[in-house]
Amino acid sequence: MLPQPVLIVIVQYVIQALMAMVIMLILRKFYRQYQNEFYRFWSISWLALFVTMIGSCIALANAFLLPLDHPFRLLVSVITLYAGFLQIAWLYAGTREISRTTKVDKSKMRAFLLVAVPICATLVIIQYDDPNAGDYRIFYRVGIKSLLAGGVFVTCALMLKKISKAGIGIRFIIFSFILYGLMQLNYFVVTLCEINNIPYGAELPFFMGAFELFLQSLMGLGMIISVLEIEQHNLKKANIELDTFLYRSSHDLRAPLTTISGIISMIKGTDDQKKIDEYHEAIQSRIDQVDNVIRDIITLRKGQKSDLRLIEINLEDEIKKEFEHLIDPNVKYPALHVKSNRKPIIRTDPARLHTVLTNILSNAIKYHDLEGDNPKISVQISCVDDGIDFSITDNGQGIDQRHLPKIFDMFFRASQTSQGTGLGLYLVRDAIDNLKGTIGVKSEKGKGTTFDIHLPNL
């Protein structure tokens, strides 16, 4: 029979485990609905906490029921410690994702998860059979993990503080992360003092108490609220874009039709065949304009509603093929130069990749200064661990700095004389978002533009 204080602690662990499972299921549901990576990362961290707490229950019971060197007791300790490392790693990955700092390198993540296995096994095995080394075992198995956890939680809080216009959910998370991190660091100090016989004023039964349960509850509540706030913001943004879309598309469709109506009236009032031919060309131009708007609307609709169809694509070959389709051999066009560090194979959706390449390359061709020195489009491709980084650079007209923050907005045109629909780069951003990638732009008026794109393997 286990002592009553031990049973109380086990009940606390079970409550924490059940809470972790509930929060994990909620975040998992959000991920399946909204497909934001940090929901998945955070849900995995809560699953790891669930395993940690269940393992802690079993380990605590084993301490009274099994000998020190029993294999099952050691195995449970290794699994519990490793789950704690997993919780820290996935929490950090999710926080990096939501704070929009550099993405977590998946190869480094895998390396950490692999290296953590022998580290956990070593920490558990050290002095595992010495009946007089209980404080040391707690230091190795709890203290060191607490030091790492404390540092990671405080670091995550500092990353979240960089989020502009953080809502109440993010503030809850920051507050709980800081206190939880400090509490974990306190655990480390307690265990360190114990092995050095230094009075500290805190007893080891303080582990996993009611305050920790409160902070974990606050963490979970903050994460759920932040998800709702983020999706509410996205919904408002979508509604604004819808209003803009309806207004601008109706305007862009009506304007050329009004012009065509006026030209037809002019045709009726003349017998001059030369003028009639000019009017016919003007009508055809306006029809092409309407067709471009309709085509972009269809592309946007397909991109938002269709599922991803994933195949392996040679990006270098795809870029060259798209370029060949866009150029007119009878018209002067810039030269294309493509460089890659190795064969750039990526698993992605071909339709959305086509949208990205067609719009960026067509802009590079359309707005190029063909009378300038050595007009060219340069593509640099780098194969990285989780996908491909590539840049498309032209030495054309460039974009005014004041327009750069808006070029991916729906219907934005950098100049009133632009012949485009204003949807091209919006479609590019939408396609890249669907492909879980990122895009950035650098440009200088009169010198050219560079689009930097990262696409992950899906």
UniProtKB/TrEMBL annotation:
An example Gene Ontology molecular-function term: phosphorelay sensor kinase activity
Annotated InterPro entries: HATPase_C_sf (IPR036890), HATPase_dom (IPR003594), His_kinase_dom (IPR005467), HisK_dim/P_dom (IPR003661), HisK_dim/P_sf (IPR036097), Sensor_HK_Regulatory (IPR050736), Sig_transdc_His_kin-like_C (IPR004358)
Keywords tagged on the record: Kinase, Membrane, Phosphoprotein, Transferase, Transmembrane, Transmembrane helix, Two-component regulatory system
Gene3D superfamilies on file: 1.10.287.130, Histidine kinase-like ATPase, C-terminal domain
Top EC group: transferase
Domain Histidine kinase: 248-458
Reaction(s) catalysed (UniProt annotation): ATP + protein L-histidine = ADP + protein N-phospho-L-histidine
SUPFAM superfamilies registered for this protein in UniProt: ATPase domain of HSP90 chaperone/DNA topoisomerase II/histidine kinase, Homodimeric domain of signal transducing histidine kinase
PANTHER family reported in the protein's UniProt record: SENSOR HISTIDINE KINASE RCSC, TWO-COMPONENT HISTIDINE KINASE
Protein name per its UniProtKB record: histidine kinase
Organism, scientific name: Ekhidna lutea
Lineage start: Bacteria, Pseudomonadati, Bacteroidota, Cytophagia, Cytophagales
